[in-house]
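job 3f2a | input accepted
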Amino acid sequence: MRYYIIAGEASGDLHASNLMKQILLLDEKAEFRFWGGDRMQAVGGDLVVHYKDIAFMGFIEVVKNLGTILKNISFCKKDIEAYKPDALILVDYPGFNLRIAEWAKPKGLKVFYYISPQIWAWKQSRVHKINSSVDKLFAILPFEKDFYKKFNYDIDFVGHPLLDAIDNDLVEAASVIRKRYGFGDEKIVLLLPGSRKQEIQAMLPVMLAAAKKNKGYKYVLAGVKSIPEEMYAGILGKSKVQIVSGNTYGLLSVASAAMVTSGTATLETALFEVPEVVCYKGSKISYQIAKRLIKVKYISLVNLILDRVAVTELIQDEMNADRLSGELRKILSDEVMIAKMKADYKELKTKLGGGGASRKTAEGIVNFLRHA
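job 3f2a | predicted structure (372 res):
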């Protein structure tokens, strides 16, 4: 069968690639055409657009790039029609993917959504559009099934795919990682400033300033391959922070603490049981808009899933060098706080369900198609 997949971010590229591997185990003749990244390309198929060319962050940034986004949507529709897939698989990336779903369903395409849009955070009315335009929805957060049930919409909770991704990537001992990058025995603090250029430009300078206030540690920037090292270097300047790109999980396996931009990385860090401070800073206008629209108590997945403050969140004006350095100091030296955070992380893993999210989703898609 022919599968057209759309993933618009680094995390989507990771989870879609693992889903593709599982589909191939169930459907040996599977053919893929996709919007995504290097991980999906490594599995095989035709990469149409790389996510690094379509990722925009914040309300104002989206408005500024609206012309480009609309052109991408138009091109995507034409490309799907030309490919004539048996299945359209949409992975997260709701601003784009929900528009494609609404267009695709009336045309008779089978539409699957993997990683539910976070409509529980804002625009909850979109649940009705999803119900009418998606054949099967696969959710990865435990509270999402109950949320959709309030709207009489039965979805599949498959567990979180990060549980599988981390198991698959944990192949090297911490000693190997330390030797490869010349870390020695010092305590390592990771800087995880995000995967989008706008995030990095906003977050990394503050993280660097906080690092300068906490000496005596080895600071390492976990870069993403889609961002040129020249961009990181331009912000780092003469800083002694070491850049390591494309091996975030290896770095997390040896880290003692991390400063993390809000997003999937907050959950990845928790699953490696690394104490963290969650950071977020956007443009003033985007932040004010989001503040009025978003209906959740927390911005990090860790706190959202546990429904309490397990990790400190520094948002907007609170995301400054003084506050961040102070919180970083706590998670590096306060043994009681560190132990409590790690206990919370263990509870988090239990709430996320067992592994096999990619396999369960692949089975749900392939079985649906075979019986359609």
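job 3f2a | Residues 163 and 355 are 6 Å apart (CA to CA).
job 3f2a | closed
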